[in-house]
Amino acid sequence: MVTLQRRAFLAAACLSGCATEPANEPVARPGQPQRWRTLQGGFLAPALPGGLQMPPRPGVGLPPMAGNGMFVRWNSPAGIALRGNDLLLADAGSGRLWRADAMGNQISAIQGAAVNRQTALALGPDLSAWVLDPATRQLLRFGRDGLLLQSQRLAAAAGAPVSLALADGGLTLLLADGVGASWTELRGVGGIARSIAPQREGGLRISGVDALAAGIESVFVLDQLLAVVHQVSREGQVRHTLGLGDLKQPVALAIDRLERCYVLDAFDGSIVRLRGADTVQRWTAAELGVQQVGGLAVDGLTLAVSDPISGMVVLNTFAHEAGP
Question: Which of 49, 196, 245, 295 is 20 to 30 A from 315, alpha carbon to alpha carbon?
């Protein structure tokens, strides 16, 4: 009876377009991603009288009960951020920002943030949503309940911000300057701590800081001109350079808890994973379950990729890997 009920639920989920689990998916080999969830949208989270959202459950930014509203499909998801079961998504097709529960299949719209394909996103340890609009130099932060906590027009000292990352347990915001080949660290509302210009040995500057991801003690920097990823100390000293000769047109970057770099290579639309000088793996969009990779995000050992063509997000896991 339980098996029949489960099959009936999965069949209904597929028909309704909600999150599904892959059926008869082959067991992935070590080092290969295994598809975990596919999201095409979700049911709107329930609202209280007066239009107020129900308070989120502890540790999760969405209400404690399943969405009971209409099912909303995403049009053309672009930038995404992932933390636990919480997914933050910029739908460039509708110009809206969404927070989704990957397990509960419910979504809620975050009002007040107009998004496009250049919008950069991050989720803090408290599940607050960080939104950067490079065109307007606007930085927004929303709480788990969708309320605006911070709105800041970035000063000229931040250069031309194109990407953001959170470091020091979410206490420090890093903003990549796509023109000045540097990043700016901000602590507190409106406070600019310092500007870091990464350098190689001998004081030679790197050619670009086009995207970044914060590790435990290092910052991983995407250099599009050289088509590499630099591992840089927080003081700005380049420690290692990854992907030389393996990347062609890198456009996006994320890292997992083992500090392996995942890079979207626009040359062939694949995602390349880098670690050390000799560890390179590459997966096509089809191997990741999408037609085209529009954005990527990593949390723990889960890789999320957005597909602007089919309007969905696919979550792949590397949980079967025993080690780095």
Answer: 245
